[in-house]
Design a protein that fits this description.
The protein is mostly helical. It is built from 4 helices and no strands. The longest helix has 24 residues. It is globular, with a radius of gyration of 17 Å. This is DUF6532 domain-containing protein.
Length: about 110
């Protein structure tokens, strides 16, 4: 998954959080004006972190990108190699590593 897509997703999450900043939901338009700086800052930080991990011999950024892509592909129903059956369903290990409903707060 590209760092640009990760930064864009984080900027969208930032917008969603802004919708609740007063404690009550108020729709916020996701537009270039307030969020272009947020996006640019996030992308810069991700690129710097990627450089740092490469220089340090770490694989954290590479692992994050690969894992996020795997989660997105699996939740979209796209089958990756490494399935545990010919039916095309994700392997047990892949399913265990996905985010599920219990990873997210519930609004009741």
């Amino acid at each position: 998954m590209s760092l640009v897509l990760i930064a864009l997703t984080l900027a969208v999450i930032h917008c969603a959080i802004d919708e609740w900043k007063t404690g009550m939901h108020q729709a916020v338009k996701f537009s270039e004006t307030p969020y272009s700086t947020c996006f640019a800052d996030l992308l810069y930080t991700l690129k710097e972190w990627e450089k740092y991990t490469i220089q340090s011999g770490l694989k954290a950024c590479e692992t994050l990108r690969r894992d996020l892509l795997k989660v997105c592909r699996t939740n979209a129903g796209i089958v990756d190699s490494g399935n545990d059956s010919e039916s095309g369903s994700p392997s047990t290990e892949t399913r265990k590593n996905l985010l599920s409903k219990m990873h997210f707060a519930r609004w009741e």
